[in-house]
C-alpha cells in the first residue's frame, strides 16, 4: 500500500525539468562549463554555431531533492545572438558567462546582459547567475570587480548572484549549480 501511495505521489508531484539557458559572448566558456558539469572534466571546444542541449541531474544540498535541468548552451558570436530569443520561452534560470580575463569586452557583455534583464518579457521570471569565468588565469578580474562593472545591484526585483569560476579547473561549478537548484526550489 505504501509503495502504491509513493508511486501515486510521484506521479502527481511530477515536475518538468528546469530549463537552464547558458548565454554570454563567444569565447566566454559556456560550452566548457556545460561539459565540465556533465562529464566532470575539461574538454576541447569549438565555437558553437547552433546550440548544445544536455540534461543535468543534481541533488539540492539543502533538502536532497533530485533536480533535473535541460540545459541549452547557445553560440555567443555576434551574428548568432539574434537567435537566442527563440529559446527564451519557459526559461527558469539564465547562466550568463563572462570571460573575466577579457576586460575589453566587459562593456559589451554588460549591454547584452542588461538587455536580457530589461527587454525580454519571456525572461522576466528567470533567475540569473552570472559566472566570472577563467578565474584560473592571473589576469582575470575578481567577482567583486566584475560585479561593479556589470552594475547588477540595480536589479532589485530579480533573484540573481555573481560567482567566480573556472571551467579549466572546475572551481565553483558545482556551487553554481547548487545555488540555482536552491533558488528554484525556494521560488
Ligand atoms: N584558462 C581558461 N580557459 C577557458 C576556460 N573556460 C573556457 N576556456 C577556453 O576558452 C575558449 C572558449 O571556450 P568555449 O567554452 O568554447 O566558449 P563559448 O562561450 O562556448 O564560445 P561560443 O560557443 O563561441 O559562444 C576555449 O579555448 C576554452 O578552452 C577557463 O575557465 N579557463
Ligand atoms: Mg560554445
TrEMBL record:
Q: Which GO terms describe its molecular function?
A: GTP binding; GTPase activity; metal ion binding
**Positions contributing to Mg(2+) binding:** 31, 48
Q: What is this protein called?
A: Arf/Sar family, other
Q: What's one Pfam family here?
A: Arf
Residue sites binding GTP per the record: 24-31, 76, 133-136
What is the organism field in this record? Strigomonas culicis
Q: Which family does it belong to?
A: Belongs to the small GTPase superfamily. Arf family.
* Keywords associated with the record: GTP-binding, Magnesium, Metal-binding, Nucleotide-binding
